[in-house]
Here is the input.
Amino acid sequence: MTDQNDLLFERARAVIPGGVNSPVRAFKAVGGTPRFIQRAQGAYFWDANDKRYIDYIGSWGPMILGHGHPAVVEAVQKAVLEGFSYGAPTEREIELAEAILALVPSMEMVRLVSSGTEAAMSALRLARGATGRKTIVKFEGCYHGHADALLVKAGSGLATFGNPTSAGVPPEVVQHTLVLEYNNLQQLEEAFALHGKDIACLMIEAIAGNMNFVRATPAFAKRCRELCTQHGALLIFDEVMTGFRVGLHGAQGVLGITPDLTVLGKVIGGGMPLAAFGGPRAIMEQLAPLGPVYQAGTLSGNPVATACGLATLKEISKPGFYEALAKKTRTLVDGLKAAAAAEGQPFNADSEGGMFGFFLMNELPQNYATVMTTDNAQFNALFHGLLDRGVYIAPALYEAGFVSAAHSEDDIAATIAAARDIFRKR
Ligand code: KE4
Here is the structure.
């Protein structure tokens, strides 16, 4: 039978670079043909061959309720009948801003934008504008979208300025970006000792979902907070992935750390293009049209996206939502660990709320370099083995996984059974 995914991939590659609109979707890291999804419902989506998969991508985080939640569909259907976009302020943007501020106490004001990249890039510019400083600190393995200043890899040696990870990013654009090793207290101390007075901000994924699933140790996260305070730098938590995903109050709630600025995305849009950044009034009022830091967007606060986001936040704010989600995710992780142990497969995993990660090694990596020692071939065999069995996990070993409220106990059990079958036959 002709594989419709193959046909679509060939057609796509003729008109879209790599056949995809975001690189990770191309299956380059794992090989094979990307599945072209034609519809989704609950915990599942169906590819062009009408094959069903249990979906652990959830659009890389947004679909925390599962696909097609009736209350969200109804809110979006109602909103589109009132208009798609006005380019003028709406009450619904105020409602969403108020809902976000009620759930993120570190924020006094918030600006809505259309993507996590835009939110992180804008937060960075705001931090530099508010402090009058140029230097920024980020960590290897953390991804904050594709703004030029953030596309950097660690320089050689300790606490040195980064080198571009992408063509088209001139070295001078990243000359003020310091890239440190995640969870490396010595490098952190050194960076602030050497550059503290020039550091505008430190941006971190406090639970890093872009190197699969790596937690900042409490000591490391606390020291980031202390050093930023001591040197007058802004601590920025990039919670595009963790916000409303690891818990109702994000990674900052889990860690009990108050950042100066928070970047949000994914869940707050419920699958529609919506992201945000926010913090104390004194900093946020540096933004245009009030202050000197420019930031703008045609579709910022889009009325359909805000309807989707509001309906999503309403559902996840219901009592017991995260307890049930976290329990389900932990059942998955514990089941996978038990299956691997039973088949002698080196394996470890961790989860927080509805986000999880696993590693084909017995340790839980503390940094990017360790994550990348994973045996690629082993991961790719697991990925394709699961895909063949109707289980769709992230097509890259450095990506996290996501469970939704729609995943059933049977879905979790079927996933564990599929993994065990693969471990047994490896
Ligand atoms: P977007 O511009 O893709 O909406 O957000 C960028 C971003 C910023 N910060 C964090 C912590 C993120 O995880 C992301 C985007 N995450 C990736 C998944 N690793 C999106 C998937 C993709 O690039 O297609």
Remarks:
- The radius of gyration is 21 Å.
- Residues 70-316 form a domain with the Aspartate Aminotransferase; domain 2 fold (CATH 3.40.640.10).
